[in-house]
Write a structure and sequence with these properties.
- The chain has helices spanning 2-35, 118-125, 128-136, 287-300, 316-319, 322-328, 339-346, 357-360, 432-444, 462-468; strands at residues 42-52, 66-76, 81-90, 107-109, 112-114, 141-147, 150-159, 163-169, 175-184, 188-202, 205-215, 218-230, 248-254, 257-262, 269-273, 278-281, 306-310, 331-335, 366-370, 373-377, 382-387, 398-402, 407-410, 450-453, 458-461.
- It has 482 residues and is an alpha+beta fold.
- β10 (188-202) and β11 form a beta hairpin.
- α1 (2-35) runs antiparallel to α3.
Length: 482
């Protein structure tokens, strides 16, 4: 009798789960019918608003920096492709943080992604129509919930076997919000939250005229849609990838000093050889690039451990590989204002979607914290590390200086890219960021002859910096870091 009772309970549980799955699929079908997803193969939309640059904030816990935005996007749902055009202009006055600030002309980005890449899949799914297609192809479940005090139905499923997606559907069968997570080298399992409102009808297709998105808890998009074209010609092609993947070349720029020049256009790094160890300057953009840098150093300096990693600041392209150096066993040298952020976010957040080396083999991080100055020495070679005061790029920015070689290693305040870029000042104008570097070199009375420019391809004579400092605009007041 007892066994029979268990069998009945199991059967009831099965029927219940089957019914819930059918109910969830019906909700998905109702949303698709309401917004006209069935016959929608592609869509183009455009508008204006604000964009925010992820992991380029002035202080580690600040929101991402804000820009004016002109935006257009085309999504091909049949091929699973998405192409955006984002035109950013300067919004913050005075500028604070990275993201190519200060911008003197339009900064254009035209990313094209497919559903097979981690971010690309989310990019396609994070529209109401992409969500309907993804939910239909999955095994959704449902539950009741509330959003902004109103009752909603919450539909959950796992996309591409990895990414959890939760969507909030209102009583009108309109999609109010999508939540999902993607892997990010610094933030780990990073939450993405996209909200939709003010739906309007375009020939049977209902489209939200207001789209807002957060990543990592901060806004990244605030878009007012002005034009919508259902089933617009897509003509999206993925850009050609470099054959063989990214590479790193170690270039000797002084005795025992190597510039690690990468092929992918990321922030580069510098390795400094001491008597019994190596110090790496910059943590790089990702674990992949950090590992390439480490491998390149071990080829040219094969018998010495990388004992220190000098982390210039907490921006994503300079701290994305910080966890890799912790896993390597290196001591992180960073400005003291970064410590709480690294402890509470970068080293604490879960990395389950794409586990990195530190997630697979956890170990405690070792830090040396810099207030104003720290000297790393073996009794023969000295490397001086300075906090760059009163700069607008990052409140915790460090630069490194080799006094014997009269070589400065710096990042972001003085860059050397080929051609004109959005943050290239007009003739006669000096960037306040570059001016801040000049002010600090004068304050510290450093005798610099060469500069290893992290955003560049090697060392350049100091005359290149002096030429940029000949502009007529004085460095505006910048609030000092806390």
């Amino acid at each position: 009798m007892l066994k029979k009772g268990f069998a009945v309970l199991a059967l009831l549980a099965f029927w219940g789960s089957t019914a819930r799955a059918q109910d969830a699929r019906k909700v998905v079908e109702d949303v698709g019918r309401e917004i006209g997803a069935a016959n929608l193969n592609s869509i183009s939309y455009s508008g204006t608003g604000y964009a925010y640059f992820v992991l380029q904030n002035y202080r580690p816990f600040d929101p991402w920096p804000k820009f004016y935005l002109k935006y257009s996007r085309t999504v091909d749902y049949q091929k699973g492709l998405s192409r955006e055009e984002m035109i950013r202009t300067q919004a913050m006055d005075p500028p604070r943080g990275g993201g190519q600030q200060p911008i003197y002309s339009e900064a254009r980005q035209t990313p094209t992604v497919s559903e097979n890449s981690p971010w690309g899949g989310n990019a396609v799914e994070l529209t109401p129509y992409g969500w309907v297609k993804a939910a239909t192809a999955s095994n959704p479940t449902m539950r009741s919930g509330t959003l902004n005090g109103k009752p909603v139905t919450v539909i959950s499923f796992t996309a591409r076997g990895k990414y959890k997606v939760e969507a909030y559907v209102d009583k009108q069968n309109l999609l109010d919000k999508i939540e999902t997570w993607t892997s990010q080298s610094m933030l780990g399992d990073m939450p993405i939250e996209t909200t939709f409102s003010d739906y309007r009808d375009f020939g049977g297709v209902k489209f939200p005229m207001k789209i807002e998105q957060k990543q990592g808890g901060f806004p990244v998009l605030d878009l007012n849609v002005s034009e919508v074209q259902p089933n617009a010609p897509a003509n999206i092609e993925l850009p050609q990838r470099r054959a063989g993947g990214p590479t790193v070349e170690a270039k000797k720029i002084a005795d025992g000093v190597w510039y690690l020049d990468g092929s992918g256009g990321d922030a580069n790094a510098v390795a400094v050889e001491f008597k019994d160890f190596v110090a790496m300057i910059e943590s790089s953009v990702s674990e992949q690039r950090a590992l390439l840098n480490i491998a390149a150093v071990k080829k040219v300096i094969p018998d010495k451990p990388i004992r220190y990693n000098i982390n210039s600041h907490a921006h994503g392209d300079h701290a994305g590989g910080l966890r890799t150096y912790v896993a390597e066993g290196a001591t992180i040298i960073t400005q003291e204002g970064n410590k709480r952020y690294y402890d509470q976010v970068v080293l604490k957040n879960p990395h389950t979607l794409e586990p990195d080396l530190l997630a697979k083999n956890p170990k405690p991080a070792k830090f040396i914290l810099v207030k104003d100055k720290y000297v790393l020495t073996d009794g023969n070679r000295s490397l001086e590390i300075y906090w760059i005061k009163d700069n607008g790029h990052a409140s915790t920015l460090l630069m490194s200086y080799l006094p014997k070689e009269k070589l400065l290693i710096e990042t972001d305040l003085f860059n050397q890219f080929p051609g004109r870029r959005p943050n290239t000042p007009p003739p006669g104008i000096v960037s306040p960021y570059t001016a801040a570097l000049g002010d600090n070199l004068k304050r510290l009375k450093l005798d610099v002859q060469q500069i290893a420019v992290i955003h560049g391809s090697g060392a350049v004579p100091v005359e290149a910096l002096n030429k940029e400092l000949e502009g007529t605009v004085q460095n505006p007041a910048v609030r000092p870091a806390d």
